[in-house]
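Support case: user asked for a sample of complex input and structure output to validate their parser. Sending the pair below.
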Amino acid sequence: MDSDFSRRSALICGASGILALSGLPALALTTDEAASLINKAVGDINKVINSGKSAGAMYGDFERIFRRYGDVPTIARSALGPPARSASSAQMRAFTSAFSGYMARKYGKRFREFIGGQIKVTDARKVKSFQEVRATAKLQGRAPFAVSFMVSDRSGTDKFFDLLIEGISLLKSERAEIGAMLDKRGGNIDKLIADLKRAG
Amino acid sequence: MKHRSILPTRAGLVAVLIAAISGCSTPENPGDIHDPYERINRVSHAVNKGADRVFFKPASEGYGSIVPKPVRSSLSNVASYLDTPRTVMNDVLQGNIENAGHSTFRFVINSTIGVFGLFDPATSDFGLEERETGFADTLAVWGAPAGAYLELPLFGPSTERDATGLAADILANPLSVFSDHGTELAAATSFPSVLNSRHEFGDTVDSILYESADSYAQLRLYYLDSRQFELSGQTSAENAFAPYEDLYEEVYEGLYDGF
């Protein structure tokens, strides 16, 4: 009995050791992983804002960063709100793509004010089911301000799904904005998609 | 020359405060936007937007291009310097002795080395950054609910609690202890400071007011979220992110069921 038990536990230990060595992804996103993701994202953003590129080129770079580090389908879906449920999958694809360009132009404009500045990750913490990575943006001649990234692995990969600047949520603000745009177009998603391609 | 006492005003304030707090309505679900006066607020928003278009925006652009930056900075420094006694008084009312000491040191340094607030060596040389507070924050610390959202003519976005605090800040500025014209002085210096902020953050203000589909809703969201952020910094940071929990669950609900 005793030896049987110890053999089994040795087997289990060995198996879990192999699992650990094989580098299978951890089941839950850790605070360190979230912080390192945002560190990379922030490094890319800093490179763009100090690259001296033209506005148009910067928007393209920002869109690539947004798609690489952000959970764009989820952010787009959430911004559209309840109408997303009745939209066709083709409409959702078109909306997500138009939304991604709109976000890059709209927030790229804001980030362009950061030229010559630096964003630096300060700390990260677990907030219920996701991770919050906090950063400070230091701009020339201005008081530093707080930027927070909300990171989750619920999409299958580690991505941020919201960005807070001094407590103002990008996700909440886009839900209000896209909702208002849709209302103005009588709830017509196709019209919204067409206009979103030029907005921002 | 008689010194105007701020005590009678303060007694009056307590009455206003009690009335205001008992009158503060609360939303059905915590975290919801509570805006029962939306119809009136939207009228006020249209007035404010008009005032910005015809006056504040062009005036701030003129101010920004004509007055050199060092002069603008100094005028803004004076405005925040003159607010320091009010900040210290409210730190004490909030029981925040550390901040009261911090801002008192700022006041002493900027009164002397800073030449009556024209410069801000407290921040640049002593690392004592501005930690502004007012009676609206004090009410929040004392546990008063925010109440309904308000957009005040000319003063802009607020809540029932914050508007009460603003009125108290204007009526009972402890600057009156130092000068007979404390209230007038504070109001006069805050004007160039407002123009300077409108100039410095011009692009952000423009994007909210003139580039969004519903500028009223955007401004309301910006105000309520940033207020909650400011206040939770003074109490518990945990509060600020609670609303995202529900949003997050809603966002992900059903989305990855196929996996």
